[in-house]
Amino acid sequence: MQDSALITTGLPIALAIIMFGLGLSLTTADFARVARSPRAVVGALILQIVVLPGVAFGLVLAFDLPAMLAVGVMLLAASPGGTTANLFSHLFRGDVALNISLTAINSVLAAFSIPLITNLAIGYFDVDGELGLQFGKVAQVIALVLVPVVIGMIVRARWEDFAKQADKPVRLFSIIVLVAVTIGAIVGERENVLDYARQVGLVTGLFCLLSLSAGYGLALALRLSRPQAIATSMEVGIHNTTIALTIALSVLDNAMVAIPAAVYSILMYIVAPAFGWAVSRTAAVDEEASDLEPA
């Protein structure tokens, strides 16, 4: 599986197209908007880059995962939010503009944080040294993640109508690629997939739920609005598994490292909507209660 042209060539190209599509939805104003919501952005970024890897590390130790699967969970934790987070935020009436700003910043930071966190995990769990993201592979990650986003932003600035027309097709393409790669990763390890699912299913499910809860809880603690809290929870809680799968399969060339992201990519479509429904329901109940209070 790892040696197939689909994985070694097709998957990086597909990710580049997806990140290019992400760039088509971004403008410099999205970065400028950060100044108007500094608490939300700084809080979400600290969760994304510092807290969540710590949570993931605690989970893999608590569940005593095999080294390769542990590295896969850490790679997943290091991956930023993406277009799926924006979609769920829109679905549950979150502040999508905040999502877009966070996605823009995360996409830049992830090009550097992913190699750092992944290499630390590889070193800690003492897996094969050749698996590490050395300078050449770090440059490959930057090229896969950051360069297409910048090109997409340039295209958006010059040909805005084209960017708007391309938005939906690229989103659909992203979903198709995610499904195809998830199936491919699972099929590639089909002899062990049930065992892997038992080992990482609970870990990745808990990680998703804890990530969503942390994002939502922090936003409320910072006294952000309910839409901002939903946006933060989705951005922090829903990771870009296409990036994690691409790095695992085409950069690290290891299908076992890809399994946590593959399992997570299925579970997040169950956990995130359930979480979104629960917080939306709670918000509706709170609003009804406040309406009943005497003036």
UniProtKB/TrEMBL annotation:
Q: Which InterPro entries match?
A: BilAc:Na_symport/Acr3, Bilac:Na_transpt, Na+/solute_symporter_sf
Q: Where in the cell is it found?
A: Membrane
Regions that span the bilayer: 6-29, 41-63, 69-89, 96-118, 138-157, 169-188, 200-222, 243-272
The reply to whether Membrane figures as a keyword in the UniProt entry is yes
**Superkingdom to which the source organism belongs:** Bacteria
Would you tell me the protein name for this molecule?
Answer: Bile acid:sodium symporter family protein
What keywords are annotated for this sequence in UniProt?
A: Membrane, Transmembrane, Transmembrane helix
Q: Which Gene3D superfamilies is this protein grouped with?
A: 1.20.1530.20
The record describes its membrane topology as: Multi-pass membrane protein
